[in-house]
Write a structure and sequence with these properties.
Layout lengths: L1 E7 L5 H9 L8 E8 L2 E8 L2 H4 L2 H4 L6 E7 L15 E4 L2 E10 L2 H10 L10 H15 L6 H14 L2 E11 L2 E8 L8 E5 L2 E5 L2 H6 L3 E5 L4 E5 L6 E4 L7 E2 H7 L5 E2 L2 E2 H19 L5 E4 L5 H11 L2 E3 L2 E3 L12 H11 E3 L1 H4 L3 E6 L6 H11 L5 E6 L30 H9 L3 E4 L2 H8 L3 E2 L1 H4 L8 H12 L1
Helix pairs in contact: 4-5, 5-6, 9-10, 9-15
């Protein structure tokens, strides 16, 4: 999973790009980069770590130009992340600066096709194959002086050759003018929005990047189209393939910031509605609870909605330390427990003697939830029930969310009929209630991708492609 911000205007873009990028730092903390274009020359700075680590201030001031792209990376492909994998990527022929959010499922096939043309993929990042395919499709039409029609034809070639889920932003010269170009695959699984501030246009993975730049959101990037942006002009939208939207459900459940707006409204509202639906399903089970507590931070809107629907108290029962950083591999259980308390510390009196309903967004491997339940049991609650406002994660995601192979997914070990009872026992809880798949679809509508829950993959993934992707994740 990654995040990008693209901008074209009349002033230097880099300061605004870096500001917008900080609003989506949650989408990637492994690497970051910024690139700009001015007077036919590209400038690029990228590195490992958080934004301030990857892009030193002394380097950022060298980035000149009113058109550019910034990116944060969380790798879902590649065994080991290096600075070579950071985005944006740049190709000299023709000159294109490009970044993306998503996952290409047929990288080996694309890389083999490119090698036949003498083009080599040098990184472990699947933005590079997209860039090289786009460049090859353009140069096949003409070496330079590319038109809008050329770009549309080239993007059509990308859609035909590159499978998976991706939103892409690029800076290049079109008809001799600096242009910000954005396109999204026909399913629109990965998000993308655009907006304006005076004469400048901004494209981003989430609307919160527009907010911090005081840019008014104009719309979501249309699936199956390419959009051209120039300073002071209206965008030019060109259809490439018919749209078949299947928006990522996990963006709504977990990944996006709650104040972001996507096609179906604000993320906070989606989580609230998912919580209300889960509350109805919990009521059907006849559970009696005294207090609802969220596992911070994603679960707060759902927990508030659940408490309101059930008519019980909602309390802040777990305090998250925002400065704990990453916890490395711990040598023993005592150290692992200390690391968990460093990150999440419970307020004891909220739990003591209470029938607690603990709310979280999802359970993937189950390790963290098991440690949380064990920690809370030590506070002597009268009962500890778990509510998860998503269905069981039973299948890997191949479209940009880093979910592991099925044998690492704890929910895949149980039959659908037995999962709630058996997993509750394994985690040490009195009960466990997942949101039903029908409930998820009722809230988010039919046009979603829920492959990680249902196993119904929007873009087919062959056995060979699955093996390649999962092999990269295992390292």
């Amino acid at each position: 999973m990654c995040g990008f911000v693209g901008m074209i205007g009349t002033r230097e873009a880099a300061p605004s790009l870096l500001l917008g990028l900080q609003a989506i730092q949650h989408r990637g903390q492994d690497a970051a980069g910024v690139g700009t274009l001015v007077d036919g020359r590209f400038h690029l700075v990228k590195g490992m770590g958080m934004i301030t680590q990857a892009i030193p201030e002394a380097d950022a001031v060298t980035l000149r130009g009113a058109a550019g792209i910034a990116h944060v990376r969380y790798p879902t492909a590649g065994a080991v992340s290096t600075a070579n994998d950071a985005q944006p990527f740049l190709t000299r022929r023709p000159g294109i600066l490009l970044a993306h959010n998503g996952n290409v499922t047929n990288v080996p096939e694309v890389a083999a096709q490119l090698r036949e043309q003498g083009l080599y993929v040098l990184s472990e990042c699947d933005a590079e194959p997209i860039l090289l395919v786009l460049a090859e499709e353009l140069t096949r039409l003409r070496p330079a002086g590319h038109t809008h029609d050329d770009v549309v034809t080239a993007v059509r070639g990308v859609f035909a050759r590159v499978r998976g889920a991706y939103s892409v932003v690029a800076v290049l010269e079109v008809e001799g003018r600096e242009t910000l170009v954005a396109f999204r695959d026909p399913h629109g699984i990965r998000p993308g929005v655009y907006g304006r501030n005076a004469g400048a246009w901004v494209v981003a993975s989430e609307s919160v990047a527009l907010d911090v730049l005081e840019a008014e959101k104009v719309g979501d990037l249309p699936p199956g189209e390419v959009v051209f942006f120039r300073a002071g002009e209206e965008p030019v939208r060109r259809p490439v393939l018919a749209a078949r939207p299947r928006l990522c459900s996990f963006e709504r459940i977990y990944f996006a910031r709650p104040d972001s707006q996507m096609e179906d409204g604000r993320i906070n509202r989606s989580r609230w509605l998912l919580g209300r639906q889960l509350a109805r399903e919990i009521r059907q089970r006849g559970l009696e609870v005294d207090v609802v507590v969220a596992v911070p931070d994603t679960s707060r809107p759902a927990a508030m909605a659940i408490a309101e629907e059930l008519g019980v108290k909602n309390r802040e029962g777990m305090i998250k330390n925002r400065y704990s950083g990453r916890t490395f591999i711990m040598p023993d259980q005592a150290t692992r427990n200390a690391a968990l308390r460093l990150k999440l510390n419970p307020v004891a009196e909220i739990f003591e003697g209470q029938r607690v309903l603990l709310i979280d967004d999802s359970i993937v491997r189950g390790n963290t939830m098991r440690r949380i339940v064990s920690m809370l049991r030590g506070l002597s609650p009268a009962a500890l029930h778990l509510g998860i406002f998503s269905p069981p994660v039973r299948h890997p995601c191949f479209y940009g969310i880093d979910m592991p192979s099925a044998d690492e997914l704890v929910a895949a070990r149980f039959t659908p009929e037995a999962i709630q009872e058996r997993l509750a026992a394994q985690l040490g809880a009195d009960s466990l209630t997942f949101l039903s798949l029908a409930g998820l679809r009722e809230v988010l509508g039919p046009g979603i991708c829920d492959a990680c829950f249902s196993g119904e993959y929007v873009v087919p993934v062959s056995d060979a492609e699955r093996g390649s992707i999962l092999g990269e994740r295992r390292g």
